[in-house]
Amino acid sequence: MTALPRRPPLMAGHHRPSTVKGDEAMGQRPNDLRPWESPKALFGSELRRYREAAGLSIAGLCDLLQDSAPYSKSTIGTVERGESRPDRLLAVQADRVLDTREALTHMWDGLFKGANAVPAWFADWAMQEPKFDAIRSYQPLVVPGLLQTPAYAAHLLDNDEPAVEARLARQEVLASATPPRLMYVMDESVLLRDAGNPEVMRDQLQHLLAVSCRHVRLQIAPLRLHEGIGGAFAIGTLPDGGEVGYKDNAVSGDTTTDRLEIKRLTGLFASIQSAAYPVDQSLELIAKVAKEKWT
Questions:
Q1: Of 80, 213, 235, 236, which sees the most CB atoms within 10 A?
Q2: What is the CATH number for 183?
């Protein structure tokens, strides 16, 4: 029987990168990715696509990156699954070893450059926000970001100029040809909470009155116990009818596309909205507080 040709031996100190075949987790097929869900998911799906096109396993990619940018297999795996945010060095070095003509670096810059002005845990929602046809939101503590005045936002963000600019830049969507329909319910305490000085609060409340219209519906939930005491949340509706949810917590927030979770948030919003004052009474209350408390 004719013997199969043997591969040439490797030189000392070198090893051959592993290929996709015989790769991750004993030949199990990697989980399908959902690149439309977030910037992290989009970058991760592209990294996997380029890696597999090069015939490399995750271990093989790590081997090629080892000298210039040592990453563990688990780190690359979490990036590809969209579970962690990549650093720019990974994009640059992956472009080099995968010969992608800086495609990953260009994508990283588009998705993440300057994003430090937006908290990492809010970036996924901020990226989706311009796409929404409608937003429903409950805010128990502060005025919604899309409706904040510059002075009010500056107070909340400790005059962090890049963060304030990033928040105000989000409001550009309201001046687009097809702005989203906004349905906001705020707790009454939002109107009463000081924001540095009376002028800031008066101007903020007057701004709410000025922007209120058929596409921006504002309601105030009265000062009593209701289902909204659990925290702020929002539901964004995409043009295709898909929905994205966002939930605040004490130290960060979470964006979700889980249908059951969004169904729960939808029911919670309906319950809070039913306990709130109607739009006309809510606007009267905003005007009254602006005049009597902040003038």
A1: 80
A2: 3.30.870
